[in-house]
């Protein structure tokens, strides 16, 4: 029997404890105890980056072999199709760029640098004169 000096909450807690202890089967309790004793912490493989780039957390080596489209743009123009059909060998198409003006260097359509045309071993090339900063690239991307 419960103590008459106990509060209502204490009596309810004692009744619940008694009811729960009566319903527990000794076999189930011992199985639960045995299972709890056999639990051990899981071992996980360390996935931390390794190598020379581990300090920065960025392994650029993963993307070095991805091909990209590099384009050097001398200039642009818009002409009607009837003028394109009239083009022949020796025709001159006027571009919007001025002579001596820096040429745009694009990677996958995004401006990354500007430069000047050079000839090296009878082949055209471009000498980079200005590299677009990462912040400027982000600003230009946000405008599109």
From TrEMBL:
Residues 62-132 form the Flagellar motor switch protein FliN-like C-terminal domain. Keywords: Cell membrane, Cell projection, Chemotaxis, Cilium, Flagellar rotation, Flagellum, Membrane. Its main location: membrane. InterPro entries: FliN, FliN-like_C, FliN/MopA/SpaO, FliN_T3SS_HrcQb, SpoA-like_sf. Gene3D superfamilies: SpoA-like. It is found in: Cell membrane. It is a peripheral membrane protein. It comes from the Bacteria. The keyword Aminoacyl-tRNA synthetase does not apply. It holds the Pfam family FliMN_C. Belongs to the FliN/MopA/SpaO family. NCBIfam families: fliN. This is Flagellar motor switch protein FliN. It comes from Rubrivivax gelatinosus.
